Every structure is written in C-alpha cells, then in structure tokens.
Automatic annotation (TrEMBL):
This is KANL3/Tex30 alpha/beta hydrolase-like domain-containing protein. Residues 75-167 form the KANL3/Tex30 alpha/beta hydrolase-like domain. It comes from the Bacteria. SUPFAM superfamilies: alpha/beta-Hydrolases (SSF53474). It holds the Pfam family Abhydrolase_11.
Amino acid sequence: MDVAAGRPGPAFYLAGDSFPDDVGVERALAPRLTPHIGGWIGQEALAGTPGGFDPGIAARSAQLEAALPDGPALRRVVLIGRSSGARVVTEVACRRPVRAVICLGYPFRRPGAAEEPARFAHLAGIAVPTLILQGSRDAYGTPAAARRYALSDRIRVQALDADHRLRLAAPDWDAACRLIVAFCARAGAPDDLTD
C-alpha cells in the first residue's frame, strides 16, 4: 500500500516575515486542521530549534529540511506556509517529495518592486500537489495575477476574499480549511490530483 494513501500529516507550518505578528493565521488553521492530520509542527516549534527564527529564505529552508522525517514518512508530510513561508515550503517541496503543499498568500511580487524570478521560477517545475489560497485583494499578487506566471500543472490557485494578511471571519476560515483537508486527502488518492 502507498504510504501517502493513509491519513495526511504531520503538517509543518511556516509563517511569513512578519512573524510573530501574523500568528493569527496559524491560530486559525491549527485547531481546524489538527483533527484531520497526523500532528502539527508550528512556527514557534521550528523557531525553537537552534538559531531561532531567521526570516532568510535559505536559513528557513535548511531549518525546515532538517526537521522533516526521512524515508517513507516524508510522503505523508504536508507543508503549509504563509507569505514568505509559502515560498520556503514550495522550494523545499521541489527537493523533498512530500504529500502536499498549502500556500496562503503566496508572495509572487513585492508591491511596487520589479519582478524577482527567485520568488516564483521554481513553481513551474514543482511536482508535489500544491494548493495556493490567494486573497483577491493581495498586494503581492491576486489569483488572476498568479495565473500569469508559469505554474506547474500540479498547482491549483483558489481565491479568498481577503488581502495579504488574510484577516478572515471564522466561517471563512472554516471553508478554507475544508478545502485544505479535501485537497490533502485527494493528494494521497491513486489519481493524485491529475484530472
């Protein structure tokens, strides 16, 4: 039996550069997702490793990779990231074949800045099923703007009625988490999201 076909998890969550100011996103996700996944490793747990929280992409990627399990257990892992944390988890997923990746407010482009291919070029080749929940008023890229980038056919972009900070009401978080749970469950199915 394929290891990925069982219950998803654990989930590893990475916040954005504004951590701990954006801790509300993790507090909204964790209690809604934990009943459906095999554990939760949040930003504070990861930042508690030697070196603490470093907002640098390379440092956070190395920290996350060091925390991931080896062998078949890796195929159950779900990586979740908000803003720059989403960039980190997608970069790591390009090297480590996890079950699924969930991005909240992917930072495609800094507002008012020139394009930085390092932010998005790797998304064209990601092989892991990836769900991007993007705010319709996100200054770092709306869902419509996201579709202008070369994205792998493994990526699904879903609009949320939100800005980059993802200040959602409880019912909207409930709906977003239902999408995440269904996506992660389907990522372990035989068709593996290829419709």
